[in-house]
Amino acid sequence: MTITITAFERSPDGGKGLARDTRVRWALEEVGQPYEVRLVSFAEMKAPDHLAIHPFGQIPTYEEGSLSLFETGSIVFHLAEQHAGLLPKDRDARARAITWMFAALNTVEPPILELTTAKIFEGDKPWSEERLPLVKDRVRARLDKLSAHLGVADWLDGAFSAGDLLMVSVLLRLRMSGILDEYQNLAAYVARGEARPAYLRAFAAQFAINAPTSS
Ligand SMILES: N[C@@H](CCC(=O)N[C@@H](CS)C(=O)NCC(=O)O)C(=O)O
Fold this sequence. Notes:
The protein is of the alpha+beta class. The chain has two domains: 96 residues, Glutaredoxin (3-Layer(aba) Sandwich); 106 residues, Glutathione S-transferase Yfyf (Class Pi), Chain A, domain 2. It is built from nine helices and four strands, in the order βαβααββαααααα. It has a four-stranded mixed sheet with strand order 2-1-3-4. β1, α1 and β2 form a beta-alpha-beta unit. α1 packs parallel to α4, α5 packs parallel to α7 and α7 packs across α8. It is globular. The site of glutathione has 8 residues, from α4. Glutathione binds next to α4.
């Protein structure tokens, strides 16, 4: 059955791979499923046809036969449930890997998103300079603990899993801030994720659409 996902017609990040379709592409590549991409403009995302599959008018979405999904975590989880490669078979290890999926999206990503908001959308506010260090410290509070958990391991809990896929994707959003480089093991962890052939294919596919053109 054909799988179709949606992605930005042109991502605001200019091909850095930070838009969430990259996470879904990566999961699809990890499990070896071919997919098609429907590119949508900002106007199209807010129009009824798209709202019918994504109630909040965002990307990514996932369509497979009669099934349509939104929310990146749910899409990655669906793929991990349907195909081998992203979740361990052992019951307890599987539950722990799923826990890391939630931890990435619910515990680690929120302060990172707050940092993006503080910099990009609130950077011109008079209170911004005073607030920014507080937001950065909230990110560090999470990274301190994540770094301590990871230690010298390659992945968060044994073999690479959907938990790592989401955690690496979330941490990638920090690269520009320089904060990631304060944590040698986390920087190496992200680099390990980025070096996976499946990630490289996913990145290249979104880059082909979003790379800045000279014209
Ligand atoms: N919680 C959602 C967030 C989706 C989201 O924020 N998508 C962004 C792109 S990465 C988007 O569509 N932004 C445009 C908008 O919200 O209008 C998910 O994980 O899928």
